[in-house]
Q: What sequence folds into this?
């Protein structure tokens, strides 16, 4: 019997190694070596473990407006701003629970917004409009550089030095200010297509992207710019750099590219989607997010080697902008006033394919009997990272079961559910 058990364990470990990510595999090996009988029984009878897909839960917030939102920015975890059509600017001070409409004083579309703290920020858009506030959006002062210009992106390095990217009837525009926006000067870029996004990973190094695959860069704080060959003619909507020479770009038809040498060479990454990808944001050197059309949000935890789809509550809005004030809190904004929030400070992050009939939030795991069973028995258990089964409160209701998880400590856990036609395993990350 002992020899048979070890043989099965070795085979099981082999399949887990093929199917699972490294951390998941190592934890399961530890569980298998310990040979906990209950877990072993469940794995033998429920051996249908899927390669993981990150399904972090984005929740929809009520913005209170129906205007399209083109940009979102949070200078702190709870205080944030979004702007869009008809000069609309909205603000929250409670992490998106409530929003108030600010008086921008204009009716032109606003495409870019940037704050250096909760009080001082700028917005830019069509009709050559540039706005500034120094009191958290209570009042805005307007400056029109040229009514023919359209400004799509704004980035400030300090309270005085900032850049605005866009275009006019004659080609691209790159503006620079060194006095907080009192005056802006146009700089020569050597490019002609419109510029849609600008990002500075340092005070010296900056990048901007736009139409027809164009990219420009500076190594002297925007005094001069040079053209970078991106190897694509797709429209590029966003650029984000995690270092002076490591940058990611995204654009039409699910395009994602990465460079680690300032644009000399590029690697095309697999997005898994044909949707346009509008906005990139990295919270560290490896962890990044991209938002795009049809409610698409992608996440990577390994510098873009793999991108996986996030659940976004069924929205099909074009998500125009994504921003993270910290590594665990993110916001995305888009069409018809759509605002989504990701909060990894509480709740769970699921890593597995989640079929219909399973609902997971920060308090409960709800199992719908009709969706996961053909009328037979259902078996489930939750295990910690060393294979110990947890005793958790369970509420039995007609047609469903609710597993209470709000009292579980932070850490990695595994939910295993089996029925005659429903074998599945989940990795849960409780934050």
A:
């Amino acid at each position: 019997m002992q020899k048979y058990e070890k043989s099965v364990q070795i085979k099981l470990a082999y399949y887990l190694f093929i199917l699972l990510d490294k951390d998941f595999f190592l934890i399961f090996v530890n569980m298998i070596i310990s040979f906990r009988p209950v877990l072993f029984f469940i794995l033998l009878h429920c051996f249908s473990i899927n390669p993981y897909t990150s399904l972090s839960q984005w929740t929809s917030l009520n913005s209170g407006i129906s205007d399209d939102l083109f940009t979102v920015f949070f200078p702190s975890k709870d205080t944030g701003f979004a702007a869009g059509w008809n000069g609309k600017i909205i603000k929250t001070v409670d992490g998106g629970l409530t929003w108030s409409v600010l008086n921008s004083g204009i009716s032109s579309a606003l495409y870019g917004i940037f704050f250096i703290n909760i009080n001082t920020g700028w917005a830019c858009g069509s009709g050559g409009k540039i706005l500034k506030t120094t009191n958290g959006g209570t009042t805005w002062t307007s400056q029109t550089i040229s009514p023919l210009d359209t400004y799509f992106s704004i980035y400030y390095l300090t309270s005085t030095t900032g850049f605005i990217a866009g275009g006019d009837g004659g080609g691209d525009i790159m503006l620079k200010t060194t006095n907080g926006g009192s005056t802006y000067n146009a700089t020569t870029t050597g490019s002609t297509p419109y510029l849609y996004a600008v990002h500075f990973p340092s005070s010296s190094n900056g990048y901007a992207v736009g139409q027809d695959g164009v990219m420009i860069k500076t190594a002297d704080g925007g005094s001069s710019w040079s053209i970078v060959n991106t190897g694509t003619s797709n429209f590029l909507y966003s650029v984000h750099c995690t270092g002076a020479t490591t940058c990611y770009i995204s654009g039409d038809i699910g395009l994602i590219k990465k460079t680690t040498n300032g644009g000399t060479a590029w690697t095309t990454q697999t997005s898994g989607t044909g949707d346009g990808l509008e906005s990139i944001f990295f919270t560290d050197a490896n962890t990044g997010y991209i938002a795009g059309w049809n409610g698409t949000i992608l996440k990577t935890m390994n510098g873009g080697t793999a991108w996986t789809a996030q659940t976004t509550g069924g929205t099909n809005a074009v998500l125009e902008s994504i921003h993270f004030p910290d590594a665990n809190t993110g916001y995305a904004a888009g069409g018809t006033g759509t605002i989504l929030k990701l909060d990894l400070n509480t709740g769970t992050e699921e890593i597995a394919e989640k079929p219909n009939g399973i609902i997971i939030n920060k308090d409960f795991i709800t199992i719908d009997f009709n969706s996961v069973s053909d009328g037979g028995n259902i078996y489930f258990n939750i295990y910690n990272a060393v294979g110990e089964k947890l005793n958790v409160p369970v509420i039995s209701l007609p047609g469903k079961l609710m597993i209470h998880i709000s009292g579980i400590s932070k850490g990695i856990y595994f939910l295993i559910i089996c029925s005659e036609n429903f074998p599945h395993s989940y990795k849960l990350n409780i934050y």
